[in-house]
Sequence to fold (546 residues):
Amino acid sequence: MSINTKQYIEEYIKIRNKNGEIISLKFNSPQEKYYNIIKKIHSENKPIRIIILKARQMGFSTETEAIIFKNVVTKHHYNAGIVAHKEESTTNLFNMSKRMYEYLPDVIKPEQKKSNAKELVFNNSNGTGLDSKIKCMTAGGKGIGRSDTFTALHLSELAFWQGNKKDILTGLFQAVPSTSTDTMIIIESTANGFEYFKEMWDKAVAGENDFYPLFIGWNELEEYQMPYTGFELTEEEFELQKIYGVTLEQLTWRRWCIRNNCGDDIDTFKQEYPICPEEAFLSTGKCYFNKENIINRLRHIIQPITIGYFLCKYTGMRIKDIKYTEDKKGYIKIYKKPAKGRPYVIGGDTAGEGSDYFTLQVLDNITGEQVAVLKQEFDETEYVKQAYCLGIYYNNALIALENNFSTYPTKKLEELEYPNLYVREKEDTYTGKNEKSYGFKTTQITRPLILALLQEIVKDEIEKINDKETLIEMLSFIKNKNGRAEAEVGYHDDLILALSIAHYIRPQQKMSLEIENIEKIQKEIAVEFGLEKEKKEDSNSTIEVF
Fold:
């Protein structure tokens, strides 16, 4: 006979509250949401896999322990592993399980075979009891979990684990049967900057692993409020009211918590008590860009109007019959289509040393607004093809690709006679004279220059950046201990550098509408896209790739 988990917990499970009192566990609103997700996944007959990004004191660890405890003491051969980030936390979680057992009514209390410092085993001396157990471990211990088989795992504060988190998790995950729908793995943690927990969270959000991403902001916990004292609201507090419906009483508690629990540091509050996932993953180092502006922009971010890529016929010397294909799994995000006579620029960062991705950033050169983004792990030839097509589509946009690692993409665009390549001046080492060369070169002089330009954009004109992935990449771009601006270890700056180059090259492109050239440009585009016949049939038609 199955036992209702919530009913069992709220009737039989006892916990110690924040005041040190032993009370029954009654779910608060965040815990209720968490439970309903577990219930839904279980009803779909799937293994339960959840990753929780949490604010402080929401009760998720306690609820997870209660669910696991209920299963261990009511099911045969149910083995649970609990892993905490430090020894003190391991002891606290283990004591929580012991307390739950201690306060169980005798009539439903299973026989306990042994209890040592970190393990509870429920069985009898004849071996005919439940044969279930709870084993508590501390992350960083050698080979934890590798000799066990678990039905359930609770992995607490993953972001703060010591050692190689990926290797530790690999060993633990192998200990849980992947085919059994009765299994459960719960990862829960507060954020700790940009590290492996963040990577797992991002993959869960993107659907690249089987973990359900659960985030609940501090504003959803009823107890986080205090009587309003009549203070005047800041612009940020008005924004919180507008976006999240935060009450005056909640804002009063927020001010109190920042002042008393967070050392009067707003960034500490946002990391410990986030209201959205982006707020949680603030950089652990000194962020190069204005974090506040980035977080606020992420709250208002727009979605691309289409995602896809270009198809074309490529002979090695010519590109023709260009066609855009809409595909949700594509690598080009379009935020605004090109307008007649409007000038555009494209900055590109090629994959190479320290970079895994080829990227392109397209800007409206009148406003400086980001209108399209490309990011993919191409080979160089495919990158050239996409850059060519994207440039032609955006009215023969001015293109500048970084030439540090490889000059091939720029040289190939030149060979293909792309009509608008960025030209830089460089000194001839033999004659000492300046000569013109295509493409962008990142040097000790140009790199700080282009990054400083983008830094100003983020500070003063953040609304010109539309791409969420670009903004998130900025949050992990820091000043290291030597003062160099760079991506944190394990993270990327491909989109940042491409956008920096795009902004830097803008003066070499027109910055006003070229009305007299509209027909000429449209004709050139029609030829490239193989649409000249259709245009002749309807002289009033406009070229529409999508």
Observations:
- The longest strand covers residues 306-314.
- Residues 221-282 form one domain.
- Confidence is low (pLDDT under 50) at residues 534-546.
